[in-house]
Amino acid sequence: MYTTRLAVVAACSALLAAGMPSATAAPTSDGQGFVDSVARCTAPDMAVAFGDTETSRVAICKTPGGQYEYRGVRVRDGAKLIVPATQSGDGKFVAENDGITYTVTASSLAVSAGNQVIREEPMVDFHSPQTPPPPAATSTPTTTPAAPLPPPLPAEEGGG
């Protein structure tokens, strides 16, 4: 009897687990950025860089006229920011909004006010014309930040 119950519990657990989406799946992306996300470039703009951190997704788009645009979204609450950006010679992209500076590099997304870094988020995944195309979506483990995230900055709420 005990063996039968154990088998039933194991079978039900397997069915339940198979029917649940993975919370650790990498976000789906293609050459324009993240699918179904604010962090995506739309035609005729082209993605020149995009990446994600544990808490954010960002795409840098280039217009046919040569201007850059920062398109970022905070995963936790969907706060979005779409603002003009510039490119520096060393591969950095910089966007500013309400006194807050967002700096995107292949290794991180840094958020600062003046010379004070508010937070620096390491890139989990980054794509640019110099990096290979993204692989098919796979499951990767994620970690929860040890400390709770700060509330959204005024510049991160609402947005274009």
Automatic annotation (TrEMBL):
It comes from the Bacteria. Keywords: Signal. Residues 137-146 have a biased composition (Low complexity). Residues 123-160 are annotated as: Disordered. Residues 1-25 form the signal peptide. This is Protein kinase.
